[in-house]
Amino acid sequence: MSIYMYDPRTMLAAIENMLPVRTFLKETFFPNTITYPTEQVDVDFFKSRRKMAPFVSSRLPGKAVNRDGFKTRTYTPPTLKPVKIITQDDLKIRAFGDHSYIQTSPEDRALRLMARDLQELDEMTTRREEWMAAQMLFNGKVDMIGEGVKDTLDFDFTNKAVLTSRAWNKPDSDPISDLRTWRLAVIQKSGMTPNAVVMASDVTPVFLNHPKLQAMFNIFNANFGNLAPKDLPNGVTFICRIAELGLDVYSYDEWYLDDETDPDNPVEKPMVPSGTIALASTNANFTFAYGAVTLIDETSKSFYTVEASRVPYTWIETNPAQRFMQINSRPLPMPTDIDSWYIAKVI
């Protein structure tokens, strides 16, 4: 039996076998994935408290203690659904990367275009997920704005600092003292120990050249840490390890095209906002949740719902002849303990 390449199940299998776009923030801090059978996603989050067991006389009954509460918020994630269109003109011209004299049929060209379109749509969706992870980690919330969509994913995050007179490019600043203070604040509030610092590109040289850091890394203080910058894949640079604080310091050089703020003048912006750092833990195990996607079956004309992180869909129009390729996704970043990381504007 022949396989119909445009069947949603066939396209879904193709997407699942694609090599993903590598995303440092999502892979490092949001390693878990959960899919929901409904469009709505229930998000449980809490703020840790350090209760101690009460002393009670052996002649008295035990003392009941309250359970720590958690909050649940229900969100309906807006759908990401980028679309590619294959027209009859696309099947007449040489595709990108093809030899000028290659002989292929329109059917073969259509299948190759489908594969490339699915890959590009998947990469666009993955880049949006990385952007959402960056917004949560460096702003404490995610503003989701688009056509017919204006919503904010906000968990009342408060671990923020904005340095002014003691900004890291000022003479009275002390980056090591600041990191020590913020690390302790996270441990006190959440019990989670930060083990990573991610900083913006423009923060890196200020941090590396700071007199306080240079003094701490001299040969007479070898136990403090290891200052050995090295490039890692996908725009990540390992800056140093501060052994005293148990922190690995990274810079992350990745950008996205912002064509929503001013559609007529799109500009590239950094994933990590200028002048900003985040202290977080790679052990926090944050999650990306995905709401279900409901579509219409082209044959039966009935609705059906798919529980997956990616849901491909295709349909045709006959006048003019066009095939539409679409990937649907409803991602939502879910930090478990809202006090388990810290954001600071340092320059």
UniProtKB/TrEMBL annotation:
InterPro entries: Major_capsid_GpE
Lineage summary: Bacteria, Bacillati, Bacillota, Bacilli, Bacillales
Protein name: Major capsid protein
